[in-house]
Design a protein that fits this description.
Shape of chain B: elongated
Largest sheet of chain A: 5 strands, antiparallel
Shape of chain A: globular
Order of helices and strands of chain A: HEEHEEEH
Helix content of chain A: 40-55%
Strand content of chain B: 5-15%
Number of strands of chain B: 2
Strand order of the largest sheet of chain B: 1-2
Strand content of chain A: 15-25%
Oligomer: heterodimer
Largest interface: A-B, 38 and 32 residues
Number of helices of chain B: 2
Order of helices and strands of chain B: HEEH
Chain lengths: 134, 73
C-alpha cells in the first residue's frame, strides 16, 4: 500500500499521463503501474490492471513484513528482470525493467513522477485539501 | 604534436572505455538481491534463502510475469 500522506487520488487521466512520461524516460522499462492511496491501480501498462494491483499489494506486504516497518523503496534484482517500487506523497509506483537498469536513476524518476502527480492533484481547484508533499 | 581536438577525442574515448569496462564487470559480478529502503536513508538487504527474501522474490517474480506479457514499447 502507498504511504499515509494521501488525501485524494489523482484522476486516472493524469496518472496515465505520468505513466507514459515515466515510460518515455526509462528505456529499460517493461511495465509499470501507479497506485492510489488505497492501493488501487490508477494507471498500468498492459491489459491486466487487477494483476498489478494484487501483485503490487503482495510485494508491499512482503516488504513491510520483512522488518515490521513500512518501506519507502524496494529494489529486487532477479535473473529475469528487476522490480522497483516507490512510495511517495501518498501514491505508489511499481516498475519492472530489464536486468541491469540503473537503479538510482529509475528510483529518482519514479519518485519525481509521483511527486509531480501528487502536486498536480493538490493544485487542481476541484480537488480536496492541499498535500504536504513527501 | 597532437592537435587539441585529437586530445579531447582520445580523452572522451578513454572515459567511454572505462565506463564500458565498469558495466561489464558489474554485469558479471551482480547476483540477484532484494534491497529495501526505509525512511531516513536506512536500507537492508534480504538474502534469497531467508524467509523474508523468499517472499520478496516470489512477489517480484509475479510482477515480472505481469509485465512480461506485453510488448516492449
Amino acid at each position: 500500500m502507498p504511504d499515509a500522506a494521501a488525501a485524494t487520488a489523482p484522476d486516472r487521466e493524469s496518472a496515465e499521463g505520468a505513466l507514459a512520461f515515466l515510460a518515455e524516460m526509462s528505456p529499460d522499462l517493461r511495465g509499470a503501474a501507479i497506485l492510489g492511496p488505497e492501493g488501487e491501480v490508477l494507471a498500468a501498462t498492459g491489459e491486466a490492471p487487477e494483476r498489478w494491483q494484487e501483485d503490487a499489494a503482495a510485494l508491499f506486504a512482503a516488504a513491510d513484513g520483512a522488518e515490521g516497518a513500512p518501506v519507502e523503496q524496494v529494489h529486487i534484482a532477479t535473473e529475469q528482470g528487476e522490480v522497483f517500487a516507490v512510495r511517495n506523497a501518498g501514491l505508489a509506483a511499481v516498475t519492472v525493467t530489464d536486468r541491469f537498469a540503473l537503479a538510482s536513476l529509475m528510483l529518482f524518476d519514479m519518485r519525481s513522477t509521483l511527486r509531480r502527480l501528487a502536486s498536480s492533484n493538490s493544485s487542481s481547484p476541484e480537488r480536496g485539501q492541499p498535500r504536504s508533499g513527501d | 604534436m597532437q592537435k587539441p581536438h585529437r586530445i579531447v577525442l582520445d580523452r572522451v574515448s578513454a572515459y567511454a572505455d572505462e565506463a564500458a569496462a565498469f558495466m561489464r564487470r558489474r554485469r558479471v559480478a551482480r547476483r540477484p538481491f532484494a534491497r529495501l529502503y526505509y525512511p531516513h536513508g536506512r536500507s537492508a538487504d534480504h538474502a534469497q534463502d531467508s524467509h523474508s527474501g523468499a517472499e520478496l522474490f516470489v512477489a517480484a517474480g509475479r510482477l515480472i510475469e505481469v509485465a512480461g506479457k506485453q510488448e516492449k514499447g
